[in-house]
Design brief:
Elements lengths: L4 H7 L1 H9 L5 H8 L7 E5 L7 H7 L3 E6 L2 H10 L4 E4 L11 E6 L8 H14 E11 L4 E7 L2 E7 L2 H10 L2 E10 L5 E8 L2
Parallel strand pairs: 1-2, 1-4, 2-3, 4-5
Antiparallel strand pairs: 5-9, 6-7, 8-9
Helix pairs in contact: 6-7
Pfam family, one: Methyltransf_25
InterPro entries: Methyltransf_25, SAM-dependent_MTases_sf
GO molecular function: methyltransferase activity
């Protein structure tokens, strides 16, 4: 099921983009994230979609974006909107990326990966970050695998346990800044903000 995620978002790219542009619940978290990303800083957005609303918000605040998404239709929209920034169509699990970045975001994206793949992405994010750089992502609140529904299609989600993410942070030089297991302002998401050690 996780391997059909790209196909799902490709098929529903325009419907997703339209809905996403009307649903900007993460603004306060982006403001916190930006405290660790200097103006002109490089941000990597994993699962960037079509660039709305996250990339637009960051670009409007003078950050340079590199977006990665498995949907060609989404990446085409992002390139059309923000032609001066870098957009890569590919699978975040194996895309070759040259850092370092001042910030990495994985909003509503790595939770579509299997738990062990999420662990690998946390490690990669730590490697891509500049010392002091910020990492914002969301997960489930406990170790789990579940099937949700979006646009009438089944959609896979998974999570490690909070203790497992924290163990990855400790091993790979990340410091936990904030964790909210059920953030009601964003619809109940479990949200992490971390910083790379200096």
């Amino acid at each position: 099921m996780p391997d059909r995620i790209a196909e799902h978002y490709e098929r529903h790219a325009h419907a997703f983009d339209e809905a996403r542009r009307k649903n900007f619940v993460e603004k306060s978290w982006l403001d916190r994230f930006l405290l660790g990303v200097p103006k002109g800083g490089q941000v990597l957005d994993l699962g960037c979609g079509a660039g709305e609303p996250i990339a637009r918000y960051l670009i409007d605040r003078e950050r340079q974006l590199t977006g990665v998404d498995a949907s060609e239709a989404m990446i085409t929209l992002a390139r059309t909107r923000f032609g001066r920034h870098r957009w890569i169509c590919g699978d975040m699990r194996d895309v070759a990326m040259e850092g370092p970045f001042h910030g990495v975001i994985a909003w509503d994206s790595i939770f579509h990966l299997r738990p062990e793949e999420q662990a690998a992405m946390v490690v990669k994010a730590a490697q891509w970050l500049e010392p002091g750089g910020a990492f914002l992502f969301n997960t489930g609140s406990a170790r789990d695998e579940t099937i949700g529904c979006q646009f009438g299609d089944e959609l896979y989600h998974a999570s490690l346990a909070p203790a497992e993410y924290r163990a990855l942070f400790a091993e790979h030089g990340l410091l936990e800044v904030a964790f909210v297991p059920h953030d009601h302002t964003t619809g109940g998401r479990a949200i992490w903000l971390a910083r790379k050690r200096h």
